[in-house]
Every structure is written in structure tokens, then in C-alpha cells.
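Renewal narrative, Specific Aim 1. Our central claim is that a sequence can be written position by position from structural information alone. The example that follows is taken directly from our test logs and has not been curated for this report. It begins with the C-alpha cells describing the chain, in the order in which they were read.
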């Protein structure tokens, strides 16, 4: 973006299949109007510095800052039409950064979305994308994750964090979510057989 004015975007959930489809356009009524989902698309200069407010890790209403939401997972898109979201004007062609975690925290779709719940049955998450942007490897990744976690828990039934969850840190890469370390402790057991 060339403008010195800070632009913002929120995450929208949609099933779009082409850049010219009417439902592909960014529309204010499809946005999550939650301040925590707003991200500056121009993080440099005075406007960018002022934009850092919503990105702070302040506590969510009714609780403390969650351990799961340690940073943002960003996806880059371009606005197809002019749209105004609150006091912010986004022009057609502007690059916007979408915060995937904000979509996963929308209380209209996720009960207690800030809490990690491996038993939650909601196919509405966007981690693997959606529509034309859906990851072709998503089914394989889900199966691999399930097998890996089940094997780990079966092999080490007493597996637990060796530090408080608040001490777990994430990498600074806004496009790939990973931990810098995951200190655990467990009781050694001999494999069966």
C-alpha cells in the first residue's frame, strides 16, 4: 500500500470461488466487528505505531489473556471494492491482512473460542482456508495430526507441560504458527511387546 494512512481489515468467513463473484467481495456486513480482529495493513510510520493498540495481548472480557492466542496468523488478500468498516475506509485494490485467529474467536460461531478444546466439533474454522483457497492437503494433515497425538498420548499417558502455559512462546512469523519450544515432562514407560 502506498498510503500513509493506516488501513484495517477484519476476517470474513465465506465460500467464494472466483474474484468476480459477488459474494467474494469484502462486505462490511460479513465482517467480524471485533476490535481484536483488526490489524494494520501499513505497520510503518506514525499511523502504524498508532495502529499497534489492537494488537496488544490485553485480556479478553471476562478472563485473562489466553495462552492459545499468543500472536496473529495472517493471510494477505486484496479488497475487490471500496468498503467502510467503522471509521476505516478500505479502497478497492488495497492489500489487507486478515487475522485468522479473530475469526476463530467470534462468539457467534465459537463458544469460548479463546480456549483450546480438542473435542470441539466445529467445521467452521479457517486454518486450512476455505473455498478456492482451501488447502488440498487438509484431510491428510488432519489424519496425521490425529495419529500423532493419539500415539503420543498412548505412549506417554502422563505427558504434561513442565512450565506454566503462560511461559510457552510462539515464533514471531505472522504467516506460520509454531512454538519456539515446548518443555514437557513424563514418566518413562517400556513399550509393550
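The sequence written for that structure reads:
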Amino acid at each position: 500500500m502506498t498510503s500513509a494512512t493506516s488501513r484495517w481489515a477484519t476476517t470474513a468467513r465465506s465460500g467464494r470461488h472466483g474474484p468476480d463473484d459477488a459474494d467474494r467481495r469484502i462486505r462490511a456486513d460479513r465482517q467480524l466487528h471485533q476490535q481484536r480482529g483488526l490489524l494494520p495493513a501499513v505497520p510503518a510510520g506514525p499511523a502504524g505505531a498508532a495502529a499497534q493498540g489492537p494488537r496488544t495481548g490485553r485480556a479478553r472480557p471476562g478472563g485473562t489473556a489466553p495462552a492459545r492466542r499468543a500472536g496473529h496468523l495472517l493471510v494477505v488478500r486484496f479488497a475487490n471494492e471500496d468498503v467502510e468498516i467503522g471509521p476505516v475506509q478500505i479502497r478497492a485494490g488495497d492489500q489487507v491482512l486478515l487475522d485468522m485467529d479473530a475469526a476463530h474467536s467470534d462468539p457467534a460461531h465459537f463458544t469460548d473460542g479463546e480456549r483450546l478444546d480438542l473435542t470441539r466439533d466445529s467445521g467452521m474454522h479457517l486454518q486450512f482456508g476455505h473455498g478456492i483457497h482451501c488447502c488440498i492437503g487438509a484431510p491428510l494433515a488432519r489424519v496425521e495430526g490425529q495419529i500423532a497425538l493419539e500415539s503420543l498420548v498412548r505412549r506417554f499417558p502422563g505427558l504434561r507441560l513442565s512450565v506454566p502455559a503462560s511461559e510457552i512462546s510462539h515464533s514471531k512469523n505472522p504467516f506460520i504458527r509454531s512454538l519456539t519450544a515446548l518443555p514437557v515432562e513424563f514418566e518413562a514407560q517400556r513399550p509393550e511387546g
